[in-house]
Design a protein that fits this description.
Blueprint (H helix, E strand, L loop, with lengths): L1 H18 L6 E15 L8 E13 L4 E15 L10 E19 L2 E19 L14 E12 L4 E10 L13 E12 L1
Antiparallel strand pairs: 1-2, 1-8, 2-3, 3-4, 4-5, 5-6, 6-7, 7-8
Length: 196
């Protein structure tokens, strides 16, 4: 699966290169920020799980108003109990570490870049604990691959620095055991963007 993912990434990147004509250009960048996430189906409410979202991106300039972005990110997601959650909920927290590859189309208006697209996720590892702090990870089966829809916007203070906010929702079930119900990830991301 790792070889397939690497091959697919290379094919997508080379396709972008070949699709651009004379006079087109590429812009590299770095991103760093946080995810506020939750999992629908774990009986815990709210975007209480805080994790990192960091990585690199390449933008293809399609026209004055349109760009295509590909990012390669390390993304932490999951869920965490709050005081308002039901006392009978199984989990206290779930920590998920992903490699995330969003492919996004951008529309530019003034200093705002509006973007939407899909993001592939590959689960690297995870931990889950109950209310007593017992590690439940060995008892769980989570699907390694997922796909999410992404909506967001970036405000650029100048040509190099921007502030990005986006909302994402998984399209596939994280839960690998159908007897345990469904787990659907949702997260809001706040990041600083630097474009070379």
């Amino acid at each position: 699966m790792k070889e397939y993912f690497l091959s697919a990434s290379i094919v997508v990147f080379l396709s972008l290169l070949s699709a651009t004509g004379y006079g087109q250009r590429f812009l590299g960048g770095l991103v760093a920020g946080i995810n506020l996430s939750q999992l629908d189906g774990d009986q815990l409410a709210g975007y209480n799980k805080v994790g990192f979202s960091t990585g690199a991106r390449v933008s293809t300039v399609l026209s004055e108003r349109w760009r295509l972005n590909i990012e390669l990110l390390f993304s932490q997601q999951g869920s965490s109990r709050s005081n308002k959650d039901a006392p009978f909920a199984t989990y206290d927290n779930i920590k998920l570490n992903f490699v995330e590859v969003p492919v996004l189309i951008n529309f530019i208006d003034w200093k705002l870049h509006f973007h939407t697209g899909l993001s592939y996720h590959r689960l690297i590892n995870f931990t889950a604990e109950d209310q007593l702090g017992t590690d439940l990870s060995d008892q769980l089966i989570y699907n390694s691959n997922n796909l999410a829809v992404v909506l967001g916007a970036t405000y650029f203070k100048n040509e190099h620095w921007g502030f990005d906010m986006r909302w994402s929702k998984a399209l596939l079930d994280l839960e690998g055991n159908t007897n345990n119900g469904r787990l659907i990830g949702k997260w809001i991301t706040f990041r600083t963007v630097y474009v070379f």
